[in-house]
Amino acid sequence: MKIAPSLLSCDFSKMGEEIVRMDKSGADWMHLDIMDGHFVPNITFGAPVIKAVRKYTDKPFDVHLMISNPLKYADDFADAGADIITFHIECDSDIEKTIEKIRSRGVKPGLVIKPKTPASAVFPYLDKIDLVLVMTVEPGFGGQSFMADMLPKVTKIKDECKKRGIEIPVEVDGGIGEATIELAAKAGVDICVAGTAVFKADDPAKVIANLQSIK
Ligand code: DX5
Ligand code: ZN
User: Fold this and answer.
1) At 15, is the pLDDT very low, low, confident or very high (cuts 50, 70, 90)?
2) Residue ranges covered by each domain of the chain
3) Average pLDDT over residues 167-179
């Protein structure tokens, strides 16, 4: 399993050092949660912050946009150094145009679905995207409980891809830790985001290694 620590749970006063700490702890990707206080009831940080911390690691930046108008800001996040930009299918932007915009900037586009959105919502876009992110909590905050009943969506997406002869990695986000990752692995998840479980651990390297060892 690949592990993407969510910087939402880091010490924001030293985000650069926190990224180095996660890099040294064996993180596969860095997950950066962008919230606009409109699409979700919380505000985090924007493209200038990502640009400022980009130099602290060579690992991929997995930028999760929880914003109402991702099309408007896609260029900013591409300029800031995102490698992957995922945005919500429930947003207000034109989905195809946003996918095309992200790809035109040499960044991998991915779609995210909230807990109430069915797996089938992403089916029309499967041939155009590089990742699907299935939320296993309501987006907006770290430290919430894992919703195991989201996992059948992962299996449905994986099955649909197989039917079409394509392979798209599926990521889950929210409530992932040592107690829940096995369920995710069984459902066919490729990448797990983990905030609280990694950042609140005494030994993040050990936790990341344990999570990565789950097949
Ligand atoms: C929630 C964010 C997540 C969050 C995960 O809206 O998208 O990335 O930081 O945090 P944990 O692992 O604590 O649930
Ligand atoms: Zn996230």
Assistant:
1) very high
2) 2-212
3) 98
What is the CATH architecture of 2-212? Alpha-Beta Barrel (3.20)
Q: How far is the CA of 51 from the centre of ligand 1 (A)?
A: 21
The catalytic position among 28, 33, 62, 190 is 33
Query: Does 177 sit in the ligand 1 pocket, CB within 6 Å?
Result: no
DSSP H or E stretch at residue 199 = helix 196-199
Task: Decide whether any atom of ligand 1 lies within 6 Å of the 109 Cβ.
Answer: no
- DSSP for residue 191: E
The DSSP result for 72-137, as a single string, is HHHHHHHHHT-SEEEEETTSSS-HHHHHHHHHHTT-EEEEEE-TTS-GGGGGGGTTT-SEEEEESS
Identify the pLDDT of residue 76. Answer: 99
Q: Is 173 a catalytic residue?
A: yes
143 alpha carbon, closest ligand: 1
CB 195 less than 6 A from any atom of ligand 1: yes
Catalytic status, residue 83: no
